Amino acid sequence: MSRVFAYCRVSTSEQLTTNQRQEIEAAGFKIEHRRMIEECISGSVQAGKRPGFMRMLDRLESGDVLIVTKLDRLGRNAMDVRETVERLAANQVRVHCLALGGVDLTSPAGKMTMQVIAAVAEFERDLLIERTKAGINRARAQGKRFGRPLSLSSDQQLQALGRLATGATISQVAREFATSRQTIMRLRNAQPS
Predict the structure, then answer these.
(1) Which fold has domain 4-117?
(2) Spatial contact of 40 and 12, defined as CB atoms under 8 Å apart
(3) Which of 2, 6, 33, 167 has the highest CB neighbour count under 10 A?
(4) pTM (two decimals)
């Protein structure tokens, strides 16, 4: 006989898993307290690195069922969710997601749902990368500088080079301009010979 587990996760200590537990009970699942895994950990942490989730994996056996309210409880993104579901399926554990109508994600229909979700997530990621690159290129075209701010202005750079030309040491110039020796060395080395 298959056992039913539930995995409930919240991201911060100010949040509670109460709503998730109530959703699972409202869907008709009666889960023993010891099989209700509750965890407070950021969704940005992969499922395979969450202590509570890993303890639950050790307890799950072939034929068991895992209930989650939403896919994002299982993983940080579509790829993580897919890997987690595939890992569970390989161990003959069925995964039901209430937000998707209780579909078993390890069934043929569930696998198709997962593939569609993964494809949409990959498409969204690609669009985000494109928009980010376009934004960076537009900012560069408008003269925006990226990276750390310069520690010396153009005028200070000329003055520091002048001091070096008069025989001042790198350490002396760095102290005078309240910067590091490395900054002065980079300035000196950037000059054409």
Answers:
(1) Rossmann fold (3.40.50)
(2) yes
(3) 6
(4) 0.62
Instruction: Label residue 141 exposed, middle or buried (CB < 10 Å: 0-12, 13-18, 19+).
Output: exposed
The verdict on whether 11 is a catalytic residue reads: yes
Q: Are strands 4-10 and 65-68 parallel, antiparallel or unpaired?
A: parallel
Cβ-contact 98, 24 below 8 angstroms:
yes
Length of the chain: 193
CA distances from 153 to 129, 146, 150, 167 (A): 33, 16, 7, 21
| Catalytic position from the list 2, 11, 151, 180 | 11
Q: What is the pLDDT of residues 81-118, one digit of tens each?
A: 888 888 999 999 999 989 888 888 888 888 888 788 77
148-182: pLDDT as tens digits: 888 899 899 999 999 999 999 999 999 999 999 99
